[in-house]
Amino acid sequence: MPQIVAGDVIRVLAHFTRPPKQKILLCVDPARFKYLVINSDPYLLALAAQLKVSPAEVPGLDHDSHVDTSKLVTLSAMETQYVIDADARCHKGSAPAAVLQRIKALIAQHGIMPKDQMAIVAANL
Predict the structure, then answer these.
(1) If you average pLDDT over residues 4-32, what whole number do you get?
(2) Confidence of residue 3 (pLDDT cuts 50, 70, 90)
(3) Which of 14, 36, 49, 71 could form a disulfide linkage to 23, CB 3.0–4.6 angstroms apart?
(4) pLDDT tens by residue, 37-55
(5) Residue 36 lies in a domain
(6) Does any domain span residue 82?
């Protein structure tokens, strides 16, 4: 059972959506359970903060998607690590360093993400 680390991509049931559904998330801070959400379509309320990525760039994707870099979401161990412990197939691998660098550059450029969350990204990715 892999331990989730910063930069890992996981697929778990997201209870923050209505109705809850499977989502692909990119771990930013495993100790505080901070993640970026990867969506099929860009989040229109923060269009400048959407990073388009392809299945060749991010493990676990089956189509072009968008990393929402406008905010971090906080989950729990039960929603993340315990799911991976129960089913290792939910751990999709690690995002390449080039993608992580693009995420950090976009966050610095758009300035939408709250400063405290920007610090978490800078310290962990």
Answers:
(1) 97
(2) very high
(3) 14
(4) 999 999 999 999 999 999 9
(5) yes
(6) yes
Mean pLDDT of the chain: 97
The CATH number covering residue 22 comes to: 2.30.30.110
Number of separate domains in the chain: 1
Distance between CA atoms of 51 and 48, rounded to whole angstroms?
8
d(CA 85, CA 64): 28
What type of residue sits at position 52? Answer: K
Domain that holds residue 35: 8-124
What is d(CA 21, CA 103) in angstroms, rounded to the nearest whole number? 24
Given CA atoms 105, 51, 84, 35 in this order, what sign does their dihedral have? positive
